[in-house]
Design a protein that fits this description.
With 262 residues, the chain is α+β, with helices and mostly antiparallel strands. Helices cover 41% and strands 17% of the residues. It has one domain. Helix 5 crosses helix 12.
């Protein structure tokens, strides 16, 4: 099975991202893919925890404990580890979470936002989270079935799993779960964001996905297409100003908008 596809045009990219989105049971177009856009197609699906280096797995609990210790309690809805993890990831703490989006256009933004990388091919990873759920531990599959859901919220996950150690112990085999963060920040909402979390802090997702070839696609964006995609996204208002509400996003958008084409 060839999981890599190199698009040839902007229209080809859109067709590829939305293919297989027809759901005959609903009679609606409802994609079951999580998308992650990266500016360099050579980048791995490594977590910020792994990229920290050193004895990062041993440091994971120390990082999170100190983050929750020094952060103001009002930043989370409830004092649950999954809430803290979501907020910590959002604010740059190294965690075992990876950022994803339900929106193909948001993924296109992140694949083309860094104009310093326009000399490199970009990529959008697409993972079918419904198929991925089939290899989850039984307790999590049952919860999804009971809720009639395809992705667990942090609240539902907390009802069955109270810690990273408990998550690790659910199965002898490594697994990956998608979770929806609490909507306590406009960035989560505007980016249509959710996370993947692995049962093993050492798991590198693209290596794990090689064992499950029916679950994913790697869509390569040639560097020659990046300016066209970027300009069309800007006109569609898929920009930092929208995805990162506030002055930081405004500054990022204006800096890129007025940068000369090189």
């Amino acid at each position: 099975m060839n999981n890599e596809y190199r698009v040839t045009s902007y229209n080809d990219l859109q067709e590829k991202l939305f293919e297989d989105s027809w759901n005959p049971n609903l009679g609606r177009f409802r994609s079951r893919y999580a998308f992650r856009g990266l500016s360099n197609d050579d980048y791995k699906l490594e977590t910020t925890l792994i990229r920290l280096g050193g004895d990062y797995a041993r440091l994971e609990n120390h990082l999170l404990r100190n983050f929750s210790k020094y952060a103001h309690q009002s930043v989370v809805e409830k004092d649950l580890i999954w809430h803290w993890l979501s907020i910590a990831q959002h604010h740059g703490l190294p965690t075992r979470l990876l950022d994803w989006t339900y929106s193909p256009y948001v993924a296109m933004h992140f694949a083309t936002a860094n104009i310093e990388k326009f000399d490199l091919d970009g990529v959008i990873w697409a993972v079918n989270y419904v198929k991925l759920n089939r290899v989850l531990p039984e307790i999590l599959r049952d919860e999804l079935r009971k809720e009639g859901a395809n992705v667990l919220t942090v609240k539902l996950l907390a009802e069955h799993v109270g810690s990273l150690k408990e998550l690790d112990s659910l199965s002898e085999e490594d697994f990956v779960l998608f979770i929806e963060p609490p909507s306590i920040d406009d960035r989560f909402i505007n980016q249509f964001a959710f996370f993947s979390i692995a049962s093993n802090p050492n798991l590198i997702l693209d290596k794990w996905l090689q064992q499950h070839p029916d679950m994913w696609q790697k869509i390569i964006i040639p560097k020659e297409l990046k300016w066209e995609i970027r300009d069309k996204l800007d006109q569609a208002n898929i920009t930092e100003r929208v995805l990162f509400p506030g002055l930081d996003g405004l500054g990022q958008w204006l800096k890129r908008q007025y940068s000369p084409k090189r």
